[in-house]
Design goal:
The chain contains 14 helices and 21 strands. It is of the alpha+beta class. Strand 2 (13-21) and strand 3 (24-33) form a beta hairpin.
Length: 495
């Protein structure tokens, strides 16, 4: 029976110590570290974080050195990509990167890319695969290695929530004595003290993951008016579900598993408001009830538990080698490269026959009709990519023109749409150098007040006021919100 530490890094650090025999766990200790040193999976102060964790481990007499790290961050991206089916991993990753470059504006060299094959189809005798692609910021991965090094831990794995959830489905895991459904769509909602995360699982693979921080959420303790707090959470979950439907083809969710904050009303309101079967996570098959630590909150440490079931070695392996190179192993690396080049040159001189044989095999592969069709498909994708690059370049130029010549931009519109309550409508937006005016329609005064409060709290808003409130048949309220944006007049004068 082996002992492990499981770390979840989000807006704080949660840790459990557990023993593992096969796929059966027994939790021995659990703790939560102050979140002032971390934010959205990023460690802000490594030294203070190491000191705080070490202090807790020593105080509790924990000497376990084997560790698994779980990154929980809104910066993790998931994309679904359809490509011709290839066999070699390097070829698959290369094609995925080409396709991703057209879909995201991020610098992909700063991300670790992992994929799962969701589905395989054939079109015109060509095999295609649906790849679920996970993009993890490299700086978050590297910080895990540095943290493990500072704590003198043996880092076994680094994972993310979607990959851990995938492992649950691969191994026919059970939650609340229900077998997870690999043929439908199920979702996991994690409500923390200041964030709500939503993961959707389609046919056994997590293909959607998002974290948001709705304003006003503070559910660490039961409040005197929990309904207000819960309504904010429910509104956010509705937005996440609605967005998932929009990007996945309006498929319906069969069940939602809720965990995190121990607030009874959250699960009840999901059932009543969303009309979706909802279960609060109280048990998991890998963790027998008799092995539970007395008073252990599975709902709070669920991510830590499933991280111990993960089977992903790529992130930890790749990170270790890269960081070691940065820490003074550059000379050894250069020597290794020279040796490798020398070996290749000798191989070229001494193995002409083998190379000729390999060339014959490659020619035969290319001449194969099916492979040739796949090659043509790839070339078509490349041509489309070049066209899209030109399109994106022109789009960037137009965006710049809008930003320079208009007082309102798409980022502000996105912020307005993000903050808008579910049943509130923005019927029109007018903007000039004096300010931005929104004409709105809300079903209640409380929802209108919530929308106004959230807009007023935006960093780019200098002043805000609400006017012209009118009741329509007593069932809805129309009103206007005027926003004065910071720096707009100054920019106008400069131009």
């Amino acid at each position: 029976m082996a002992m492990f530490l499981s770390f979840e890094i989000n807006n704080n650090i949660k840790i459990i110590e557990a023993s593992k025999k096969g796929r059966t766990l027994s939790v021995l200790r659990s703790m939560s570290i102050d979140g002032s040193f971390v934010e959205d999976g990023r460690i802000l102060d490594m030294d203070r974080t190491v000191d705080a964790i070490n202090e807790e481990l020593i105080k509790r007499g924990i000497k376990t050195r084997k560790a698994i790290f779980l990154i929980n961050s809104s910066r993790i991206m998931i994309r679904r990509i359809k490509l011709p089916l290839l066999k070699k991993k390097k070829e698959i990753l290369s094609m995925i990167q080409i396709e991703l470059q057209q879909r995201v504006r991020a610098d992909l060299s700063r991300y670790k890319i992992i994929y799962e094959v969701s589905d395989i189809t054939r079109e015109k005798k060509i095999a295609y695969a649906e790849y679920i692609v996970y993009c993890i910021p490299e700086d978050l991965v590297n910080s895990c290695y540095k943290l493990a090094e500072g704590l003198k831990l043996k880092l076994l794995e680094i994972s993310i929530i979607p990959l851990c959830i995938n492992e649950l489905y691969k191994n026919k895991g059970m939650i609340n004595d229900f077998v997870l459904n690999k043929r439908g769509i199920e979702a996991f909602v994690n409500v923390n003290e200041n964030s709500v995360s939503f993961s959707a699982v389609n046919n056994g693979i997590c293909d959607f993951y998002t974290i948001s921080k709705p304003m006003g959420i503070n559910l660490e303790k039961e409040t005197e008016s929990p309904s207000f707090d819960v309504s904010i959470v429910i509104t956010q979950i509705v937005k996440q579900i609605r967005y998932y439907y929009s990007v996945s083809g309006n498929r319906s969710i069969d069940k939602i598993y809720v965990y995190g904050i121990n607030n009874k009303k959250i699960n009840e309101d999901i059932k009543s408001n969303l009309k979706i079967n909802s279960e609060k996570i109280t048990s998991i098959s890998c963790l027998p009830k008799e092995s539970l630590l007395n008073g252990f909150e599975l709902s709070k440490y669920f991510n830590n538990v499933i991280a111990l079931l993960s089977n992903n070695k790529e992130l930890a392996k790749n990170t270790n080698s890269r960081l070691k190179l940065k820490k003074g192993f550059a000379y050894a690396a250069i020597v290794s490269i020279i040796a490798a080049i020398s070996s290749l040159l000798l191989g070229f001189i001494n193995n002409r026959a083998a190379m000729k044989n390999e060339m014959t095999k490659m020619t035969s592969y290319i001449d194969n009709a099916e492979n040739y069709e796949a090659y043509r498909e790839i070339e078509d994708i490349k041509r489309q990519s070049e066209y899209l690059k030109l399109y994106l370049s022109r789009a960037e130029e137009l965006k710049l023109e809008v930003e320079q010549n208009d007082c309102i931009d798409t980022s502000l519109i996105r912020e307005i749409n993000r903050l808008k309550p579910f049943e509130t409508k923005v019927t029109s937006i007018y903007s000039d150098k004096e300010g931005t005016q929104l004409l709105c329609l809300s079903p209640s005064l409380s929802e209108a007040a919530l929308f106004f409060s959230q807009l007023r709290g935006l960093d780019r808003v200098e002043k805000a006021h609400m006017a012209s409130i009118q009741s329509k048949t007593g069932q809805s309220f129309s009103y206007s919100i005027v926003l004065k944006l910071k720096g707009v007049i100054d920019n106008e004068e400069k131009s």
